[in-house]
Specification:
The complex is a heterodimer of chains A (about 350) and B (about 350). Chain A contains 13 helices and 19 strands. With about 350 residues, chain A is an alpha/beta fold. The N and C termini of chain A lie far apart (about 70 Å). Chain B is α/β, with parallel strands linked by helices and about 350 residues long. The longest helix of chain B has 29 residues, at about 240-265. In chain B, a hairpin with a 2-residue loop joins strand 2 (about 15-20) and strand 3 (about 20-30). Chain B has two domains: about 1-120 and about 305-355, ATPase, nucleotide binding domain (Nucleotidyltransferase, domain 5); about 140-300, Nucleotidyltransferase, domain 5, CATH 3.30.420. The chains are: A alpha/beta (about 350), B alpha/beta (about 350). At the A-B interface, helix 4, strand 7, strand 12, strand 15 and helix 11 of A face helix 1, helix 2, helix 3, helix 6 and helix 7 of B. Chain B: One of its GO terms (cellular component) is cytoplasm. Chain B: Its cofactor is Fe(2+).
């Protein structure tokens, strides 16, 4: 038997069964119910009116998405495109709690997915939650029951203390399971960055091709230096783009260190992954990292084209991810494509390069 | 003395109101806060264009602090290090508010913000000033996705960088390892959970810069490469392998941090150690550094909440409080000189401060 809070007084406790919850959700109601981490505000995620009610209840600014709970992997795959990373996470974290952000298939009501069409899937093994979803046959929202930026609710009292009368009025049913033991909020992980559609942009065709074997970090740096010497004569006349491609840890930043040293830059060249861009010697060298960039447009948010017209030197790692965008500048800039691959020996790399 | 602080130097759009060292509100707009309060999701660049959310975040910071804009005594903003186009948004907003309200403007180094985040107190705290036992000099570790550095803090406002990374930051290395294990990016917090189940002795990854601690450099590119090859060799990955790989990687990267900390503590006799930045939320790292501190009877200080570990604006407000006390403010006539400084160093003054 479950305990329900009587809505009129918010105090009296009645008992009932899971059908009561499912019925309320079916009728577009908003149910406050427990999970393993917090009390959640659940509505049928496919019911437009119910989701609107939830948005009002949560007092959310426009465009903030809600995660949804599913009964199993099958239901998750109906709602979202689960790529290999998402499946991995599901497998490794099951039974949760974790929230996996995937590309949504737009099967849920407006306001659930983010502006960019991503959907957060909450993976749980909480029995009541799973049972409710199964009985309903549809996903439910699993956002925590507090209004935005209020305390996370571990017991019903915590929650009610912070709600306005208007918000309380929107609640159709409260399931009281006493105090939920404190647990970290579920971890949220975005898997959309791993979508292969973003990764592959078609073959890169080079006019000429050169290949050398590097036997050490130092010799990779020297290749950077040699390439600079080869193209230095164009410096100041046209932009120079060193477009780097190669797997994780292969030495793309190492190459750039050599390039920068040959250019006379004294500062330490560090990985630009986090900041997306590092600028050296007042804009003499721009070091980009396209790894976290999701589409061509984003490169322009970094004022990429301006750097081309300013005739600067650009080293860009993971260039294959934005190959189309870089290609657009093949008239204005000299684009040197550099591919670094792991070779047989421990420290050996094959470095091949050519111009677009 | 209430300060409205803004920080947009990285992925998060953040605003806060602080009073002295008390945090009255600390609002961070990130994808993480949509689902959990803080998780570790970095919005993509499209979302990094903070423009569309800065207004909401600022007004939320004011309303959560139950504070009218008129009651603010100064405006502070993080001007670097960070991504130029991102810093720009917060900077422009802060300048505008400063001129509009005719209130002093304070420019803060983002790394200084992290270092001083340990001094922050919750709004319910009775303490008005930093606890008297804060003994300077102190040493601070800032370990995040964007930077990893050990800083000597002679006193608030006087810093010396003792060691910094020559390639990847610690948080970045952890995030990338998670990605190699198919756990998404950024997965530092997930890697931590996986590592708990694993045996760190299973795999023999190299400890970075072993025996070269004298050079005072962090380096994570070598172990990243070794990890990449190891993961390739271990395909297909099982749950057990993932646990062990995560544990091995985390263990070796942390050993590198420990060795460097021990090294600097041999040279510099300090009273306190500040552990800050996003990675300071990692329980295992805290445990290891606590052990080092205990051995030397050094007090370990950690920000009071996770929200203060990751990028936030409250830490900017805390740092600004001290800068204001020292009179290091920018007057409205000099406001035009203030610009974004993407590669700002915590031990150097901003160009307009000279």
């Amino acid at each position: 038997m479950l305990k329900f809070v009587f809505k009129k007084t918010m105090k009296t406790i009645k008992t009932g069964s899971i059908e009561k919850i499912v019925d309320t959700l079916k009728n577009g109601g908003l149910v406050i119910m427990p999970t393993e981490t917090v009390y959640i505000a659940a509505v049928d995620a496919t019911n437009h009116a119910a989701v609107q009610k939830l948005i009002k209840y949560k007092n959310r600014p426009f465009g903030k998405p809600f995660s949804v709970g599913v009964a199993d992997l099958k239901m998750a795959q109906v709602l979202a495109k689960m790529n290999q990373t998402a499946l991995n996470l599901y497998k490794n974290f099951y039974p949760g709690p974790v929230t996996i952000v995937c590309s949504g298939k737009h099967k849920v009501a407006t306001g659930i997915e983010s502006e960019l069409g991503t959907l957060g899937i909450f993976v749980t093994d909480h029995k009541l939650t799973i049972d409710v979803i199964k009985a309903l046959g549809k996903p439910i929202t699993t956002t925590s029951a507090n209004a935005s930026y209020q305390k996370r609710p571990f017991k019903i009292k915590d929650l009610l203390d912070f709600l306005s009368i208007k918000q309380k009025g929107l609640i159709d049913l409260i399931v009281d399971a006493g105090e939920i033991p404190y647990r970290e909020a579920s971890t949220v992980i975005d898997t959309t960055i791993d979508d292969p559609a973003v990764l592959r942009q078609g073959e890169i065709r080079l006019k000429d091709k050169n290949e050398v074997l590097s036997r050490s970090e130092e010799s990779t740096q020297n290749i950077g230096k040699e390439l600079w010497q080869k193209f230095e004569k164009y410096f100041g006349q046209r932009a120079l783009v060193f477009a780097l491609e190669g797997p994780m840890g292969v030495g793309k930043t190492v190459f750039t260190k050599g390039l920068a040293r040959a250019m006379g830059i004294k500062d330490e060249i560090v990985s630009p992954t986090y900041n997306l861009e590092e600028e050296y010697d007042n804009g003499k060298l721009h070091h980009f990292d396209a790894w976290r960039i999701e589409n061509n447009e984003e490169l322009n948010n970094l004022e990429f084209s301006k750097k081309i017209t300013d005739k600067t030197v650009i080293a860009i790692e993971w260039a294959d991810r934005v190959a189309d965008e870089i290609r657009k500048y093949s008239e204005e800039a000299i684009i040197i494509w550099i591919k670094i691959e792991y070779a047989r020996g421990e420290n050996e790399r094959i470095v091949s390069w050519g111009t677009l | 003395m209430k300060i409205l602080a803004i920080d947009t130097s990285t992925d998060e759009t953040a605003a806060a109101v602080t009073q002295g060292i008390k945090v009255l509100s600390n609002i961070i707009w990130s994808q993480a806060s949509l689902h959990a309060k803080w998780g570790g999701v970095y919005p993509s660049l499209a979302k990094r264009v903070h423009l569309e959310r800065i207004d909401w975040v600022v007004s939320k910071a004011l309303s959560s602090a139950k504070c009218e804009a008129d009651n603010i005594n100064a405006i502070a903003v993080g001007t670097g290090p960070g991504l130029a186009v991102a810093i720009e948004v917060g900077l422009a907003k802060a300048k505008k508010i400063s001129l509009l309200l005719n209130k002093p403007f304070i420019a803060i180094n983002h790394v200084e913000g992290h270092l001083l985040s340990v001094l922050a107190k919750p709004k319910t705290s009775r303490q008005q000033r930093p606890k008297d036992i804060v003994g300077f000099p102190a040493i601070g570790l800032v370990a995040s996705g964007g930077t990893t550095q050990l800083v000597l803090i002679m006193r608030v406002g006087t810093y010396e960088i003792l060691a910094h990374t020559i390639d990847d930051a610690l948080g970045e290395a952890l995030d990338k390892a998670a990605r190699m294990l198919g756990l998404g990016y950024p997965g530092g917090p997930i890697l931590e959970i996986m590592a708990k189940e694993g045996d760190p002795k299973t795999y023999n990854l190299p400890i970075p810069m072993l025996g070269k601690e004298n050079r005072s450099r962090f380096s994570y590119s070598g172990i990243k490469t070794a990890m990449y090859k190891l993961v390739q060799n271990e395909q297909p990955l099982t749950k057990e392998k993932i646990h062990n790989l995560a544990a091995s990687f985390q263990d070796k990267t942390f050993q590198h941090v420990e060795r460097l900390i021990r090294k600097v503590l041999e040279t510099y006799k300090v009273k306190e150690f500040f552990l800050t930045g996003g990675v300071s939320a990692n329980i295992e790292l805290r445990k290891r550094i606590r052990k080092i501190c205990n051995e030397r009877e050094i007090i370990l200080s950690i920000p009071y909440s996770k929200k203060l570990c990751t990028d936030n604006a409250a830490m900017i407000g805390i740092a600004a409080n001290f800068k204001f006390q020292r009179g290091e403010i920018v007057t409205s006539t000099n406001l035009d000189l203030v610009d974004r400084v993407p590669r700002a160093r915590v031990d150097k003054k901003f160009p307009w401060e000279k």
